[in-house]
């Protein structure tokens, strides 16, 4: 078996590697305006410390910013701001009284962990509630009354919300148009790839683009009929791309490159979507090309021009969302275990903070909460990146304080650090810490007297918080270093099996075609999520990281199986019949055996493969995946042997 297309380098290299994403200039500009303007106005009026307090109120919006529809962003940013204000008020009311502040912070930490299970927006809001509760407990040292501090905070928060949403009326559907256009751009890029590794990366990017576009559009459709019609047209245009996407994946899997006229047409579709202009006529299938894959691709292009007519999906009521969240808390212990770990570590941090002789020791608790935040990936990786980012950020802050920057120079520096934080959010967690650290140092230095003590306290407290996380939340916490990735891989085998059942039968109704499309999206999204989860774990030097490295060829094999299934499904009904039910059952049984073997931590049994020339590609890829699970020539050991070594009892991981 050949070496997988992903060669895992040293864990630290993986940890420090930034994501290759474009710079979000719109977020950079909004962050700079939101944080620097209150300082500039206050400095012009003669009291820059007041501007620093208002700038603190703008932080929840800046830290919660994310790409998406304006309706989605309004709900996300509004919820985060309200949660941050609530946490800040609790901190203000209990600050200076350890008998009250310590239980309050621990309780808020536990509640925030439970709220995180309710979804992405709830998770971000819960984090802001905890962060600003901790910051609020330290504001008593300013000597200002609670209502004054809270008023400044609210003014800054309202200002940042206005900046974030001011372009709503003139660019209401621009994010959605960009998301749909990106699908066609990635589709053209995949078809123009000249080698297998490049085409595979392009297919991953296409999957991500489609998931992002569907997420944005399904969230975006509001109860306003005029705006809803626009969103629905975009959703129909996105849905119409499905046949072309399936045919393109099949063609790339077969090692074929699409004609230049097809690539040019898809690029033109992207431009037309962005400009809200009618689409040009698609190219016609050459008469001398009877290949079923080419026929499927050109038919898909015609479908893009015609568009789909999807009906509106009823929105989920807030009451139903609350019920789903409550059900998730009752059904499984994972959320409670995460909440317990966060609560214990925060309690330890609060006790340590009382004993540390440095000023501003509340940063210990703050660091623990941010690093241990549920659903944010590897605890080990975040702790290391937080520490490295803080050291770099403290160095920057120290230089700024050493040169004695004041006045308008500080305003410009805070704008620059705010923009850097916006870039760090999408590139690398350590980069985020590098820019947020001097930003907070300068804000706290302006709000209170002192300079070098702030720098020293920030460094010592953050390193202490990271050590608490690494020792108590990672090294000593039961199960934190055990591999827990096999179960997710097994679930992905099940998703691909469901896709096989939908893709390998001939569809004659719109409902059946829609079901197949949904099964394909579910399978590819599961694979994309699986890659993300493994990339988060692979940075750990623990057995979990080593097992993730060993499992990587299995993930690559499962992706190739899925592509081969797509190739078969595209050709059905174009002069070729569907595979027999018995052949389909053999494929799904093989996938089920792989899933069961992973869950039971054993080598998979040999399974019969379909004796059908049209399924030869699927059978070959399945055979390679069986070999990868058994691990004949992986990096060191079979991933199953690693599981049995570090998880001696048979249980689903």
UniProtKB/TrEMBL annotation:
<keyword id="KW-0472">Membrane</keyword>
<feature type="domain" description="Integral membrane bound transporter">
    <location>
        <begin position="350"/>
        <end position="472"/>
    </location>
</feature>
<feature type="transmembrane region" description="Helical">
    <location>
        <begin position="459"/>
        <end position="477"/>
    </location>
</feature>
<comment type="similarity">
    <text>Belongs to the YccS/YhfK family.</text>
</comment>
<feature type="transmembrane region" description="Helical">
    <location>
        <begin position="148"/>
        <end position="168"/>
    </location>
</feature>
<protein>
    <submittedName>
        <fullName>Putative membrane protein YccC</fullName>
    </submittedName>
</protein>
<dbReference type="InterPro" id="IPR049453">
    <property type="entry name" value="Memb_transporter_dom"/>
</dbReference>
<feature type="transmembrane region" description="Helical">
    <location>
        <begin position="124"/>
        <end position="142"/>
    </location>
</feature>
<keyword id="KW-0812">Transmembrane</keyword>
<feature type="transmembrane region" description="Helical">
    <location>
        <begin position="77"/>
        <end position="94"/>
    </location>
</feature>
<dbReference type="Pfam" id="PF13515">
    <property type="entry name" value="FUSC_2"/>
</dbReference>
<dbReference type="GO" id="GO:0005886">
    <property type="term" value="C:plasma membrane"/>
</dbReference>
<feature type="transmembrane region" description="Helical">
    <location>
        <begin position="52"/>
        <end position="70"/>
    </location>
</feature>
<keyword id="KW-1003">Cell membrane</keyword>
<feature type="transmembrane region" description="Helical">
    <location>
        <begin position="392"/>
        <end position="417"/>
    </location>
</feature>
<keyword id="KW-1133">Transmembrane helix</keyword>
